[in-house]
Structures are given as structure tokens and as C-alpha cells.
Amino acid sequence: xNARPKKHSxxxxxxxxxxxxxxxxxxxxxxxxxxxGQPINLLAAEIDKDRGLDAxxxxxxxxxxxxxxxxx
Length: 72
What we know:
- This protein is α+β, with helices and mostly antiparallel strands.
- It has a single domain (6-70), classed as Orthogonal Bundle (Ribbon-helix-helix fold), CATH 1.10.3990.
- The protein has helices at 23-36, 40-50, 57-70; strands spanning 6-12, 15-21.
- A hairpin with a 2-residue loop joins strand 1 (6-12) and strand 2.
């Protein structure tokens, strides 16, 4: 397990951005997108739209992944 976050590139609303996520969260995020039949950029855009102003995108993705597996 590598606890250091690594930058990963995404495209949101036509703009490139990056999020720093631990590899385990990034892999889980990709798996969830694949299960849903969605590109990761589309899933990230949905999370970004729903996250509100208090959370960064990386944190919102971590919480999304956690909630997904808690509700499974």
C-alpha cells in the first residue's frame, strides 16, 4: 500500500484538471466507473457537480468511493 497521493488527470467540462489520490482510491474510482459503464471523466463531472463548495474534488471522490462500498 502506498499512502502517498499521486496526481491523476481528468477532463471536466472540457478543461483538464488533476486530482491527487492514493492509488487504492484511484483504482476503486476507475472500477466503479467501469461497473457503471461510464468514462471516469463523466463520473468525476457528476461528483464535481454534487460536491458543493466545502469539499475539494479529490476529497469528494474519496467520500464517493467510501459510500459506494459501504452501500454495496
